[in-house]
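User: Run a structure prediction on this.
Assistant: Running it now.
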Amino acid sequence: MCVLLVGLALMFLWPRSSAAPRPAPTPQQVAAREEALTRATVFTTPIDLATDPNTGVIDVHLTACTFIPSQPSGTTPKFDCRLESGQKIKVKYGWTREIPVEIAATRLLGALGFGADRMSKVDIVRCYGCVVDPFHVRSFARILHLGGAFDSHLNFNHAIDFVNVSVERRLEGAAIEAGAEKGWAFYELSKINPARGGATRTEVDALRLMAMLLNHWDNKPENQRLLCEGEKDTGCDHPLAMIQDAGSDFGPYKKNLKKWRETPIWSDVRSCTLSMKKLPFQGSTFPDVRITEDGRRLLAGRLTKLPPAQVKALFAGAGFGDANEWADAFQEKIRQITDRPPCE
């Protein structure tokens, strides 16, 4: 334990060498990504809110997998792992509020028909080849340029159990990226062109409104994904713009009931204007926008079809200790969208 603590301290104190600049995307990569974005949809096949989206693939009590060495990213402890079936999963561990938040947010997005990864809360993940804290230990090894040595000493006959974790299976499809540039910004949603087969303004406004409901303020491009639901090798017939990391939602700053309740849906009720300017980083890539009446009605219709009992069960199952209060606050958010005059 002492060795681990020293290693973690060094990880943050060790002088960082300047990283090599990422190569700029080629004009062809930029053009392909821009073309796909103009044709992007925002809705796909909805999931059943009452059913775990990983049923039949993930055992929510005990799931075994084999560690996949990969570059650590972000700040939340996580690692990639492979199931016996060959499917790749991402496991988030540690006592972080991001786990219940992301489970609840992705399930709600999926139930409403938006693109969302499939997330489950799992009692135990038994990881073969893992060390005690793979995220921080591997981050430390990378800083010391010892990633290869770390990987060569992994013992895949030995397993470590991780308790009360989230398991994510990505929505099937290839990410559409321009070189190292990943995801999309909310201000880019205006590029989607229904004349090219992309989502309508009504559908895009429904996504914007849902992002406001969730307080999805941490919307830097890499927290969204442009996904090809078809075969990318033959050209992407079905690009999809989706939220892929909602771990800081319901707050802001992850699972803050008081703040979430106090953040209104509308910055100006009469004009149906949304603004994240009062949220962290002034809402990042989310510009102030007026929502159309059709967009409001589209999301309102889908929200009112979610059974309140299932919403309450979702918050409880995801790990929100005060699930009744969260479910009540969610219904109040819905009422702010539904119980109002039409947007002008």
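The CA atoms of residues 106 and 113 lie 11 Å apart.
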